[in-house]
Write a structure and sequence with these properties.
Elements (H helix, E strand, L loop, with lengths): L2 H9 L3 H16 L4 H28 L20 H8 L2 H4 L14 H9 L1
Helix pairs in contact: 2-3, 4-6
Length: 120
Amino acid sequence: MNVPLMSNLKKLRLSGLASTLEIRLQEAVGNQLNHQEFLELIVNDELAIRDDRAIARRIKKAGFRDLKSLEDFDFSFNPSIKRRQVMDLATGRFIRDKTDLLILGPPGVGKSHLVQAVGH
């Protein structure tokens, strides 16, 4: 790969583009992409990588003890927890609506798991 080009991409903080450039060049040749299509691909790659990094930073900053997911939650363990309500919380609509959320219950019923899964 062209060393000065890679150096310039890193100076411009386009390391995501730099990491996918060679593959995208091969794809452009193989699929006979025009300049605009090629540029759109590599810009989308850079944006996707930046979005992934931003999410990773937010997850790290949130300080979750463990990474939990809703798929791992055993709804049969505590049948009083309604799956539909939890899935509604996972949409984040309560945040957009600026609605407070308070989850109460005794120890061991899955509150922390659900909060971390919804936050993740």
